[in-house]
Amino acid sequence: MQFNQRHDYEYPNGLDLRPDSPVHEKLLDAAKDRIKRGYETGSDMRDMWRKLDHLQTAYVPTTTDSIWELKKDSKAPVDVVIPVSRAFLDMLVSYTGGIYLGDPTGLYQLTARGDKEQLVRAAKMEALLNTQAHWFKHKLSHYTGFRDAYLYGISVKSPVWAKHKRREAIQEEVSEVLYQMVKDTVPGIGIGDMVRYLEERVYHEGNEIENIDPYSLILDPYVRLNHYQKAEFLGYWHRTHVMDLLKREGDPEERMFNCKYVRELVDQRCGRSEIQWANQSGRYDRIGMGVETEIPGHPSTQTTNEVDLAHLYWNLIPEEWDLGDSTDPELYEITVAGDEVIIQCNRLDYDHGMYPLVMSGPNTCGYDLLPISGIAATYGMHQLIDWKVRTHWWNASKVQNDMFVVDGSAVNVQDFMRPGPGKIIRLKRPLYGDKNIDQFIKQLQVTDVTGNYLSDIQGVHDLINVVLGTHDIMAGNMSGMPERPTAFGLQAAQSNAMSRIQMYAEMLGEQEWYTLITQMAHNNVQYLQNDMVVNILGSRFEEQLRMELGVPAGINDITVGPWDLDMGAFEIMPVSRLQKETDMSIMSQMMDRMLSIPEVALEAFGGMDVSRMFLAMIRKMGFANVHEFRREGGALPPVNPMVMPDEQVMAMEQAGNVMPAEAAGMSV
Fold it and tell me: Using CA atoms, how far apart are residues 314 and 157, in angstroms rounded to an integer?
């Protein structure tokens, strides 16, 4: 495409990346080739995903046959989708969310290593990560990711650095320098006056998690899902508009250019891609965007500034593409707008050294790139349920509405075809007075052979439960349990029922959770510019932070700055709620028996801070704000009890080495 205007840009590393330059054309052709090949990798899977999306909705497809049946009979049962799989999907997502997102002490947990200074650094990193999770709504992103993983078989997230900004009022005394600068524009101002102005400030910054639509993925076809970090290239499509690009171009942290050329591209033609990736999911159809209006340059298109962006992360050798002198592979980010203009071309300098993408698929066999999800594996069973429901109600409709053979020469057919109860059917004149009308009207006997279909559906439903591992006990259905199950039996049944889903959850942890926390922690160390205030109330390291930093009671906030963070201060804790619950049950039984012995109880609690132990247990039970109910002052002095034989205690008393507690002023 020929551009009419020439814009002055300072391109990275002194390159010439104008849309008509040789370097731009060479790089654009190579990037588009990989974008096209990478997007075609998932073409067959996208067809399956559309069918799975269809299973998640309860509606009547408006096919030609269905519309015709409805016009003939408004009560005709057409193709109705029964969203059975949605219940299974919600069960999988909710259980996984409970594992990763249900801990009241925070989503992300770290283990400190080293001395007390390292502990403080690890505690600050954990507090900052969990505070960012609240600022940038990480739970929403995680639930979307879990749904993608269980429905489509693959989930992709990207931790990006984000900032929340606002304008704050600033008061400042006019100095002589400031007076000389503004005296001509602000009449009447003098030295020593107080002026008030608005200044844009960052009040939140940190990791935001973006979900990547599986329909938009650009994948290296020669890499396994578990080894996606070894791919030559990865990427995804994204739709935005020109105004957003022009705004982002003004932010130097975005490192974008050529957006004015994109505006010209949109004005002359269209910014949508010829690949038509947005049509693959059918989501635009649900908001009134038909297929025809998605064609670039279509005359009925009213929105003229939409732009399709292809984000490509590519391991390339800069020397081969005239991007530098390096002969070693380096990871670059290349963004193509509207199939024509490169608006980003930067070497990625992340400290973590990885693709800024986190991919997972709990149903992978270990050798595939796009796994078949459990919902997809049971697709045929869901179709069988839909068919049995439709067939049953269709047969019931036939039986209820009756079927007749009518002699049209004897009966007024129009009266007979009129629906509704209490109707009058008129005979034709030659048969007036004829009492034998049975020979002109005959009702056919229709037998409903689908009476057992509903029970068959329950059998198929149970089979899907077996395949997916979503047993009834997970949904709170205890009908299969004995009438009075013991606590141990109930715990064993729950553990067995949830073991398969626990396996999926652990695979998600290995594939994405630890990688995600690692990337976000690196981003904090690398990109944090401002001091952030975080709340430590109820955190796992609250007592240690108060002790080491001298935070008094009643003060729950601490400041975390860029120099307070260190990647070498911690390890990421594994997440295994099922094992914790099993261990807790066994430990509780053992503790009940041991603590029933007074001597054992006294020795066990002799070296323990029972108050802190109690607070920790209460937090684990979900009472996160238990600290608000602690009484200030009135605490007992610390006691270090020692257990000794009676004879030794009596001997020490006679020697004057010990004295009764009452004499020391302590009440017992």
Answer: 17
Q: Phi and psi dihedrals of 369, rounded to 5? A: -100, -40
Query: Structure tokens of 631?
Result: 């009484």
3-state secondary structure of 586: helix
Contact 166, 201 (CB under 8 A): yes
> Do β-strands 217-219 and 233-241 pair in parallel, antiparallel, or remain unpaired?
antiparallel
- Pairwise CA distance, residues 51 & 513, whole Å: 29
Ranking 62-66, 271-275, 484-488, 585-589 by mean pLDDT, the lowest is 62-66
Residue range 416-465, pLDDT digits in tens: 777 666 667 787 777 677 667 777 777 777 666 677 777 777 777 777 77
Contact in structure between 330 and 12 (CB atoms under 8 Å): no
Q: Where are the domains of the chain?
A: 1-40+232-354, 404-443, 606-668
CB 539 within 8 A of CB 133: no
Task: Take residue 247 and report the two structure tokens written for it.
Answer: 């705004």
Beta carbons within 10 angstroms of residue 193's beta carbon:
13
CA gap 537, 545 in Å, rounded:
10
Confidence (pTM): 0.76
| Cα–Cα distance for residue pair 134/485, rounded to 1 Å | 40
CA 196 to chain centre: 43
In the block, residue with structure tokens 């290593």? 113
| Burial of 17 per CB tally in 10 Å (0-12, 13-18, 19+) | buried
| Residue in 244, 234, 247, 257 with CA at minimum distance from that of residue 21 | 257
Distance CA 232, CA 218 (A): 11
For residue 295, the model assigns a pLDDT of 46
Structure tokens at 2: 């020929």
Contacts of 374 (CB under 8 A, 6+ apart): 88, 92, 150, 363, 467, 468, 469
Which distant-in-sequence residues (6+ apart) come within 8 Å of 465 by Cβ?
A: 88, 471, 472
Q: Per DSSP, which regions of 193-349 are E strands? A: 194-212, 217-219, 233-241, 306-316, 330-337, 341-347
